[in-house]
Amino acid sequence: MEIIKTLHLFEPLEQRLIELLKSLEPADWSKPTVAKLWTVKDVAAHLLDTSVRTIAIAQKYTGDKPDEINSYQDLVHYLNRLNADWVKAMKRMSPVTLIEFLQLTQKQMFDYYHSLNLYETALFPVAWAGENESKNWFHIAREYTERWHHQQQIRDAVKQDGIMSREFFLPMIETLLRALPYTYRNTSVPDGTSVQVTVTGTNGGVWAIESTLGKWLLTSPKEINATSLQFDADTAWKLFTKALTENQITERVKIAGNRDLGTPLLKMIAVMG
Known about the structure:
Strand content: 5-15%
Order of helices and strands: HHHHHHHEEEEHEH
Number of strands: 5
Distance between the termini: 25 Å
Oligomer: single chain
CATH architecture of the largest domain: Up-down Bundle
Largest sheet: 5 strands, mixed
Number of domains: 2
Low-confidence stretches: none
CATH topology of the largest domain: Four Helix Bundle (Hemerythrin (Met), subunit A)
Mean pLDDT: 95
Helix content: 40-55%
Protein backbone atom coordinates (compact mmCIF):
# COMPACT_ATOMS: atom_id res chain seq x y z
CA MET A 1 0.00 0.00 0.00
CA GLU A 2 1.44 3.33 -1.08
CA ILE A 3 2.03 5.72 1.81
CA ILE A 4 0.21 9.03 2.15
CA LYS A 5 2.65 11.85 2.85
CA THR A 6 1.38 14.33 5.43
CA LEU A 7 4.35 15.26 7.64
CA HIS A 8 5.18 18.35 5.59
CA LEU A 9 1.64 19.66 6.00
CA PHE A 10 1.43 19.88 9.79
CA GLU A 11 3.34 23.14 10.16
CA PRO A 12 1.47 25.15 7.48
CA LEU A 13 -1.84 23.68 8.66
CA GLU A 14 -1.19 24.72 12.26
CA GLN A 15 -0.02 28.16 11.14
CA ARG A 16 -3.38 28.64 9.46
CA LEU A 17 -5.11 27.50 12.65
CA ILE A 18 -3.38 30.19 14.71
CA GLU A 19 -4.15 32.84 12.09
CA LEU A 20 -7.78 31.75 12.10
CA LEU A 21 -8.15 31.81 15.88
CA LYS A 22 -6.47 35.22 16.16
CA SER A 23 -8.95 36.62 13.64
CA LEU A 24 -12.05 35.58 15.61
CA GLU A 25 -14.39 38.07 17.22
CA PRO A 26 -15.37 37.42 20.87
CA ALA A 27 -18.81 36.14 19.80
CA ASP A 28 -17.27 33.63 17.39
CA TRP A 29 -15.81 31.52 20.19
CA SER A 30 -19.25 30.49 21.44
CA LYS A 31 -20.70 29.61 18.04
CA PRO A 32 -21.92 26.01 17.63
CA THR A 33 -20.06 23.64 15.32
CA VAL A 34 -20.93 20.45 13.46
CA ALA A 35 -19.15 18.63 16.31
CA LYS A 36 -22.57 18.46 17.95
CA LEU A 37 -22.18 19.61 21.59
CA TRP A 38 -18.94 21.54 21.03
CA THR A 39 -18.54 25.25 20.38
CA VAL A 40 -15.68 26.83 18.44
CA LYS A 41 -13.75 27.26 21.69
CA ASP A 42 -14.40 23.63 22.66
CA VAL A 43 -12.98 22.38 19.36
CA ALA A 44 -9.91 24.59 19.74
CA ALA A 45 -9.48 23.24 23.27
CA HIS A 46 -9.68 19.68 21.96
CA LEU A 47 -6.89 20.45 19.48
CA LEU A 48 -4.75 21.61 22.40
CA ASP A 49 -5.59 18.37 24.21
CA THR A 50 -4.30 16.25 21.34
CA SER A 51 -1.10 18.33 21.20
CA VAL A 52 -0.52 17.85 24.93
CA ARG A 53 -1.18 14.11 24.71
CA THR A 54 1.27 13.80 21.81
CA ILE A 55 3.98 15.60 23.78
CA ALA A 56 3.34 13.35 26.79
CA ILE A 57 3.81 10.30 24.56
CA ALA A 58 7.05 11.78 23.24
CA GLN A 59 8.19 12.17 26.86
CA LYS A 60 7.16 8.55 27.55
CA TYR A 61 4.51 9.65 30.04
CA THR A 62 1.16 7.88 29.94
CA GLY A 63 -0.66 9.37 32.94
CA ASP A 64 -3.40 7.36 34.60
CA LYS A 65 -3.96 3.88 33.28
CA PRO A 66 -7.10 3.57 31.12
CA ASP A 67 -10.13 1.58 32.14
CA GLU A 68 -10.15 -2.05 31.10
CA ILE A 69 -10.52 -2.02 27.33
CA ASN A 70 -11.72 -5.25 25.72
CA SER A 71 -13.37 -3.93 22.58
CA TYR A 72 -13.41 -1.08 20.08
CA GLN A 73 -16.47 0.36 21.83
CA ASP A 74 -14.66 0.29 25.19
CA LEU A 75 -11.89 2.36 23.59
CA VAL A 76 -14.39 4.82 22.12
CA HIS A 77 -16.09 5.30 25.52
CA TYR A 78 -12.72 5.84 27.19
CA LEU A 79 -11.59 8.44 24.62
CA ASN A 80 -14.95 10.22 24.71
CA ARG A 81 -14.64 10.58 28.48
CA LEU A 82 -11.09 11.91 28.22
CA ASN A 83 -12.18 14.41 25.58
CA ALA A 84 -15.17 15.59 27.60
CA ASP A 85 -13.14 15.99 30.80
CA TRP A 86 -10.55 18.15 29.05
CA VAL A 87 -13.08 20.36 27.25
CA LYS A 88 -14.94 20.94 30.51
CA ALA A 89 -11.73 21.94 32.30
CA MET A 90 -10.82 24.34 29.47
CA LYS A 91 -14.05 26.31 30.00
CA ARG A 92 -12.09 28.45 32.49
CA MET A 93 -9.28 29.23 30.01
CA SER A 94 -9.55 32.43 27.98
CA PRO A 95 -9.29 32.35 24.17
CA VAL A 96 -6.08 34.39 24.34
CA THR A 97 -4.42 31.88 26.65
CA LEU A 98 -5.73 28.99 24.59
CA ILE A 99 -4.07 30.40 21.47
CA GLU A 100 -0.82 30.92 23.39
CA PHE A 101 -0.83 27.31 24.59
CA LEU A 102 -1.54 26.03 21.08
CA GLN A 103 1.47 27.97 19.81
CA LEU A 104 3.62 26.79 22.71
CA THR A 105 2.97 23.10 22.01
CA GLN A 106 3.25 23.09 18.22
CA LYS A 107 7.00 22.63 17.81
CA GLN A 108 7.22 19.75 20.27
CA MET A 109 4.37 18.01 18.47
CA PHE A 110 6.03 18.53 15.08
CA ASP A 111 9.39 17.31 16.39
CA TYR A 112 7.86 14.12 17.74
CA TYR A 113 6.17 13.21 14.47
CA HIS A 114 9.38 13.93 12.54
CA SER A 115 11.34 11.69 14.92
CA LEU A 116 9.31 8.62 13.98
CA ASN A 117 10.45 6.07 11.41
CA LEU A 118 7.58 6.07 8.94
CA TYR A 119 7.83 2.33 8.31
CA GLU A 120 8.07 1.11 11.89
CA THR A 121 5.05 -0.06 13.89
CA ALA A 122 3.03 2.76 15.41
CA LEU A 123 2.18 2.94 19.08
CA PHE A 124 -1.53 3.04 18.22
CA PRO A 125 -3.21 1.28 15.28
CA VAL A 126 -5.68 3.01 12.99
CA ALA A 127 -8.69 1.17 14.37
CA TRP A 128 -11.30 2.72 12.08
CA ALA A 129 -9.44 1.15 9.13
CA GLY A 130 -9.67 -2.24 10.82
CA GLU A 131 -5.98 -2.46 11.63
CA ASN A 132 -4.61 -4.13 14.73
CA GLU A 133 -1.15 -2.84 13.84
CA SER A 134 -0.30 0.21 11.75
CA LYS A 135 2.84 1.81 10.43
CA ASN A 136 3.85 5.24 11.69
CA TRP A 137 3.10 6.90 8.36
CA PHE A 138 -0.55 5.84 8.66
CA HIS A 139 -0.73 6.91 12.31
CA ILE A 140 0.69 10.32 11.36
CA ALA A 141 -1.74 10.61 8.44
CA ARG A 142 -4.59 9.75 10.82
CA GLU A 143 -3.42 12.51 13.18
CA TYR A 144 -3.31 14.89 10.21
CA THR A 145 -6.96 14.11 9.44
CA GLU A 146 -7.80 14.92 13.07
CA ARG A 147 -6.00 18.27 12.96
CA TRP A 148 -7.55 19.08 9.57
CA HIS A 149 -11.16 18.20 10.26
CA HIS A 150 -11.30 19.91 13.65
CA GLN A 151 -9.87 23.10 12.16
CA GLN A 152 -12.39 22.80 9.34
CA GLN A 153 -15.19 22.47 11.91
CA ILE A 154 -14.16 25.86 13.27
CA ARG A 155 -13.92 27.37 9.79
CA ASP A 156 -17.33 25.97 8.90
CA ALA A 157 -18.85 27.57 12.02
CA VAL A 158 -17.38 31.03 11.43
CA LYS A 159 -17.66 30.91 7.63
CA GLN A 160 -13.93 31.26 6.89
CA ASP A 161 -12.26 29.35 4.04
CA GLY A 162 -8.61 28.40 4.10
CA ILE A 163 -7.84 24.66 4.06
CA MET A 164 -10.19 23.19 1.45
CA SER A 165 -7.47 23.54 -1.18
CA ARG A 166 -6.15 20.45 -2.93
CA GLU A 167 -2.86 20.75 -1.01
CA PHE A 168 -4.54 20.26 2.37
CA PHE A 169 -7.76 18.44 1.51
CA LEU A 170 -6.62 15.66 -0.81
CA PRO A 171 -4.22 13.89 1.62
CA MET A 172 -6.90 14.16 4.31
CA ILE A 173 -9.70 12.57 2.27
CA GLU A 174 -7.35 9.96 0.80
CA THR A 175 -6.46 8.90 4.33
CA LEU A 176 -10.10 8.67 5.41
CA LEU A 177 -10.91 6.54 2.38
CA ARG A 178 -8.40 3.91 3.51
CA ALA A 179 -11.33 2.82 5.70
CA LEU A 180 -13.25 1.59 2.64
CA PRO A 181 -12.12 -2.08 2.62
CA TYR A 182 -12.88 -2.46 6.34
CA THR A 183 -16.24 -0.73 5.90
CA TYR A 184 -17.24 -3.35 3.30
CA ARG A 185 -15.82 -6.35 5.18
CA ASN A 186 -19.27 -7.87 5.80
CA THR A 187 -20.59 -7.21 2.29
CA SER A 188 -20.44 -10.42 0.25
CA VAL A 189 -20.38 -10.09 -3.54
CA PRO A 190 -18.87 -12.02 -6.47
CA ASP A 191 -15.16 -11.52 -7.08
CA GLY A 192 -14.48 -8.63 -9.44
CA THR A 193 -17.31 -6.49 -8.09
CA SER A 194 -16.14 -2.92 -7.61
CA VAL A 195 -17.42 0.19 -5.87
CA GLN A 196 -16.14 3.59 -6.92
CA VAL A 197 -16.38 6.94 -5.13
CA THR A 198 -15.75 10.30 -6.76
CA VAL A 199 -15.21 13.47 -4.76
CA THR A 200 -15.90 16.27 -7.21
CA GLY A 201 -14.05 19.54 -7.62
CA THR A 202 -10.42 20.49 -8.15
CA ASN A 203 -9.53 19.23 -4.66
CA GLY A 204 -11.16 15.82 -5.11
CA GLY A 205 -10.37 12.56 -6.86
CA VAL A 206 -11.56 9.04 -7.67
CA TRP A 207 -11.08 5.94 -5.51
CA ALA A 208 -12.26 2.33 -5.85
CA ILE A 209 -12.37 -0.98 -4.02
CA GLU A 210 -12.81 -4.43 -5.54
CA SER A 211 -13.80 -7.79 -4.13
CA THR A 212 -10.92 -10.24 -4.65
CA LEU A 213 -10.93 -13.78 -3.26
CA GLY A 214 -13.61 -12.80 -0.79
CA LYS A 215 -11.80 -9.67 0.45
CA TRP A 216 -12.28 -6.03 -0.43
CA LEU A 217 -9.10 -4.28 -1.58
CA LEU A 218 -8.27 -0.78 -2.75
CA THR A 219 -7.77 -0.76 -6.50
CA SER A 220 -7.36 1.58 -9.45
CA PRO A 221 -10.55 3.28 -10.68
CA LYS A 222 -12.38 1.32 -13.40
CA GLU A 223 -14.61 2.26 -16.31
CA ILE A 224 -17.37 -0.15 -15.25
CA ASN A 225 -18.39 -0.57 -11.60
CA ALA A 226 -21.25 -2.28 -9.82
CA THR A 227 -21.84 0.96 -7.93
CA SER A 228 -20.51 4.49 -8.37
CA LEU A 229 -21.05 7.29 -5.86
CA GLN A 230 -20.36 10.97 -6.37
CA PHE A 231 -20.46 13.94 -4.00
CA ASP A 232 -18.59 17.16 -3.32
CA ALA A 233 -15.71 17.80 -0.92
CA ASP A 234 -17.84 19.47 1.75
CA THR A 235 -20.15 16.47 1.86
CA ALA A 236 -17.19 14.06 1.96
CA TRP A 237 -15.41 15.40 5.04
CA LYS A 238 -18.63 15.93 6.96
CA LEU A 239 -20.01 12.48 6.14
CA PHE A 240 -16.88 10.55 7.14
CA THR A 241 -16.36 12.52 10.39
CA LYS A 242 -19.94 12.14 11.68
CA ALA A 243 -21.00 15.74 10.96
CA LEU A 244 -23.63 14.46 8.50
CA THR A 245 -25.59 11.22 8.47
CA GLU A 246 -26.73 9.09 5.55
CA ASN A 247 -30.25 10.50 5.87
CA GLN A 248 -29.02 14.09 5.67
CA ILE A 249 -27.18 13.78 2.37
CA THR A 250 -29.84 12.33 0.07
CA GLU A 251 -29.80 15.40 -2.15
CA ARG A 252 -26.01 15.67 -2.07
CA VAL A 253 -25.09 12.20 -3.36
CA LYS A 254 -25.42 10.75 -6.85
CA ILE A 255 -25.49 6.93 -7.02
CA ALA A 256 -25.27 4.90 -10.23
CA GLY A 257 -25.75 1.14 -10.35
CA ASN A 258 -26.60 -1.03 -7.34
CA ARG A 259 -27.79 1.47 -4.73
CA ASP A 260 -27.75 -1.11 -1.93
CA LEU A 261 -24.05 -1.67 -2.54
CA GLY A 262 -23.47 2.03 -1.94
CA THR A 263 -25.06 1.97 1.52
CA PRO A 264 -21.98 0.85 3.51
CA LEU A 265 -19.97 3.77 2.15
CA LEU A 266 -22.64 6.24 3.24
CA LYS A 267 -22.37 4.81 6.76
CA MET A 268 -18.57 4.90 6.85
CA ILE A 269 -16.94 6.68 9.79
CA ALA A 270 -13.22 7.41 9.70
CA VAL A 271 -12.83 8.87 13.17
CA MET A 272 -12.99 7.15 16.54
CA GLY A 273 -16.67 6.86 17.31
